[in-house]
Amino acid sequence: MPIYKAPVEDVNFLLNDVFQIDRYDNLPGFSDASADVREAILSEAAKLSEEVLQPLNRVGDLEGCVRHDDGSVTTPKGFKEAFKQVVEGGWLGLSAPTEYGGQGLPITLSQTVTEFQCSANMAFSMYGGLTVGATAALLVHGNAEQKAMYVPKMVAGEWTGTMNLTEPQCGTDLGLLRTKAVKQADGSYKITGTKIFISAGEHDLASNIIHLVLARIEGAPAGIKGVSLFVVPKFLVNADGSPGARNGVTCGSIEHKMGIHGNSTCVMNYDSATGWLIGEENKGMQGMFVMMNEARLGVAVQGLAQSEVAYQNAAAYARDRLQGRALSGVKAPDKPADPIIVHPDVRRTLLSIRAFNEAARAMVVWTSLKSDLAHRSSDPKDRQDADDHLGLMTPVLKGFLTETGFANAVQAQQMYGGHGYIAEQGMEQFVRDARIAMIYEGANGIQALDLVGRKLPRDGGRAVMAFFGEVGAFAKENAGDEAMKPFVAPLSTALGHLQQATTWLMQNAMAKPDNAGAAATDYMHLFGLVTLGYMWAKMAKVVHGKIAATGPTDYLSTKLVTGRFFMERVLPATTTHLARIQSGSATIMELAAEAF
Amino acid sequence: MPIYKAPVEDVNFLLNDVFQIDRYDNLPGFSDASADVREAILSEAAKLSEEVLQPLNRVGDLEGCVRHDDGSVTTPKGFKEAFKQVVEGGWLGLSAPTEYGGQGLPITLSQTVTEFQCSANMAFSMYGGLTVGATAALLVHGNAEQKAMYVPKMVAGEWTGTMNLTEPQCGTDLGLLRTKAVKQADGSYKITGTKIFISAGEHDLASNIIHLVLARIEGAPAGIKGVSLFVVPKFLVNADGSPGARNGVTCGSIEHKMGIHGNSTCVMNYDSATGWLIGEENKGMQGMFVMMNEARLGVAVQGLAQSEVAYQNAAAYARDRLQGRALSGVKAPDKPADPIIVHPDVRRTLLSIRAFNEAARAMVVWTSLKSDLAHRSSDPKDRQDADDHLGLMTPVLKGFLTETGFANAVQAQQMYGGHGYIAEQGMEQFVRDARIAMIYEGANGIQALDLVGRKLPRDGGRAVMAFFGEVGAFAKENAGDEAMKPFVAPLSTALGHLQQATTWLMQNAMAKPDNAGAAATDYMHLFGLVTLGYMWAKMAKVVHGKIAATGPTDYLSTKLVTGRFFMERVLPATTTHLARIQSGSATIMELAAEAF
Description:
Two copies of one chain form a homodimer.
Chain A: H1 8-18, H2 35-53, H3 57-63, E1 66-67, E2 73-74, H4 79-88, H5 107-120, H6 122-141, H7 144-156, E3 159-164, E4 180-183, E5 189-199, E6 208-217, E7 227-233, E8 235-237, E9 243-246, E10 249-254, E11 265-278, H8 284-320, H9 344-376, H10 380-414, H11 427-437, H12 444-455, H13 458-477, H14 485-508, H15 513-550, H16 554-570, H17 573-582, H18 586-590
Parallel strand pairs in A: 3-6, 4-6
Antiparallel strand pairs in A: 1-2, 4-5, 5-11, 6-7, 7-11, 8-9, 10-11
Helix pairs in contact in A: 1-9, 2-5, 5-6, 5-8, 5-9, 6-7, 6-8, 8-9, 8-10, 8-11, 9-10, 9-15, 9-16, 10-11, 10-12, 10-13, 10-15, 12-15, 13-14, 14-15, 14-16, 14-17, 15-16, 15-17
EC number (chains A, B): 1.3.99.41
Function (chains A, B): Involved in the assimilation of dimethylsulphoniopropionate (DMSP), an important compound in the fixation of carbon in marine phytoplankton, by mediating the conversion of 3-(methylthio)propanoyl-CoA (MMPA-CoA) to 3-(methylthio)acryloyl-CoA (MTA-CoA).
Cofactor (chains A, B): FAD
């Protein structure tokens, strides 16, 4: 059976030492998240994830969700009870506004809890995750009545939420969607159409399910400019707030899919279902973007989370599994063979996963802190800077963390040899579950295009210039510090590659957008690598400070070695990405479609 | 439903034009494989794979193999009839010696047929593939009686074969194996022990199963030097050659695994089963190596094969799926959206898979030809050169082709967006099936160690020097050819990186073997990239010649574009691998095992 131990020490290091979130005590909710409160929350979150959610991970994979003839769906054994614990612990409302029953704590904190839950049980965590995303959209774009009707119940976890975008003929290109909305005399709409791939579309965990649905109002313009957002509850809500009559939305079937079997991925049929407009007519994408940006961060965390739990198991296995002898001579003479962790190739594999995980976690905390600043700061300049950062980093986080996270799960599985291919060991489930994160909430190719085509040029490149400025200043400040050399020198080289790539795009992609498209995925990876390199350099700096102040610990020493590994072994890939980007799009665009 | 079309034109190009196998008419069997015979065989092989095997691929995945209470195993519906067709077509004996009923045709030819069958149905093709491997071991190390008793039936496909190495406590390190062999008065042995992960260990496709089993004879030395190889038939063979009494070997259970569900992966229990020694006592690894080298080439082909079929489906989907508009302006104004193949990132993905497939196929043909030369040439120098090549390239083929093949299947799946995650589409099966090829027949980390630790230094580096000499000479000869510049220049750079890496290993790994271990996987990838680069340059040269002679065709023009893509976009990764190799092992070896 797989193991999982929430990385509480690592989270504390990031919150307390690297990002020092106590500095933000002036922001709403931050003073409620003092060090001891954080400690208590993280320790309880760890316990819940390790003891309740993780043991259900394989159960969920084996049993999956079952749709009954009446359209109802049963989740795997134990999910209902576990969800009850999540609800009773108030975990879904951790960062929700206090006026709706939430605890108003920083996203910076709740995102780390999300990581624990995703590591322990990704399929399970999605029921709550989607609810938080739907709540965010309602909070930003819903009217007062809608907020009052839905948000408190969703924050409490009594009701869950979904997002309904995809249809058979439309995924990325939402302008193609056909689901219809017909306005009624009372101001409501009748929604009719079919949505596919709806995560948590139907289940038995909550007394109501609040669907947010993209549809086209009769007579609306074609394309994306005619798309509106609606709230469609499974049960219409009575005047007293209790669930009333069944609405015309049903689960038509559950998809058979590669992984996340514990989450019900539904085909949802809307048959004159009653819905209400959220925000303005034909401005549905605005609300959906709130939800998607929220969700994209969550999906990035899934990539990290699967990489983390896969690493923990692979490392434990490598310490235990006896096979062969060390190249440099016998290490365990009292045993029939050495543990495979003596082998450089095994260590290389483990370190490359770990070096990613720790820096990716830092990147998530950093960006979550910016999210808090963007939403809570009273200073417009701070809000704008934070929002710039958030916009720029969201596609990088989603694309780079999920792709690397998946690749890491595959490498962790590899440490098990043949045993990694066997279901009972659990490693292959991490791979299958992690795979979806590269696809949903905007496939990674779309993230790369969003980065290159939208986020980079936005506001004259203000966000990317701020990032270059920050990293460049860090490198300059620490250039004279001998201990920082193994970090600063490679970071500067990598930053140079990213800047060259950016210049190349400015010079070559304006007139010829195919050059941007051809460069996009490599640019996203290059950006991700430089960001993780910066995270490592920042962390190393903090570690040096702590060691100078209070002496070395195992945790701190390991951190430095892991960081050096990243700079030596992972970061050099920036060279290759730059070369690819600079090769342009001519060859790629040369063939006719039929030639493929 | 997934499609598959055997790449017959591409195989013909390689056999006829690039490697011109008609030049080898003096080798036994080659003159029987004249161009028209090859054409007929490839066309029949294509038909069998496309029409019989491919339609059973998903059936096999869904149904899997079922073990009954009596230990018998039923394969998925249709497998039995399909196997009968394979047997009746003589496909298992294509390259087997004529004196045992085979057709004695070149491996160069039969290996291309293997690719078709693996693309169509990897799990199914393993039943035959393992039989061919077991037959090879019997042919090399079996005595006359053993050969006469087993080989003709195995060549005919009446009986199938297995290889039994792994035990719960021993995978890579076969010296740890515990299965016991006790010599009997009649010269036979009683074999007792448990073997795991035995592919095709029990099934209903053949009237007998011939197990080749590694075991330790009572009183044998400890470790790998006390391991012997035995032949243990499921049914003892009567004097007339018919299957007789049931032997004491049974299938204890079937593993639940990530993929290749159509192949029965068995726990095999040996309970005083009667077996006969193959070759000498305590020299079991020699026979096993024959089988494993055969199998490693076959597994390399599986990597290519899954990449090929995944590519074909992804390309077809990209041509059909309408979503969004081209960055450079609308391409299909009559349709609601453009097909996604207009997007540079989609083309980049497809081309990177295709550029690998075509060069990997060339590498397989090249190496198979060397295998034929090693076995059939009358010139000892030719045999030695060919054997050098085979030894050097086997770990590269196995490790590099399976790892890239898997990554390509993942990328092909990505082209489908959410649909790629859904089982019915078949893309996720390619990923799950391809995954095992990185693991079995020596996990890829072991291949890398074999390359760096054994194959590279062997005979004073004779094999690698010959390879460098050949590639270097090609680059020199074509340096003045303007049309070849896009191929020769990047090839020379990449070869330079490989030579630098090799020099670094010579200087740093002798005294400190951990430097070799830390470099191994990157060195294997670097080697694979350079080899594929060489294949592309060779193919480009041939294409230029053909175009000059008879004018361009779509096939030839596409080949050149695909090749240029490889040189521009794939080959530059050699820089990163070199940097990683040169970073050494110090950081990797620094942490204590407990720190991981």
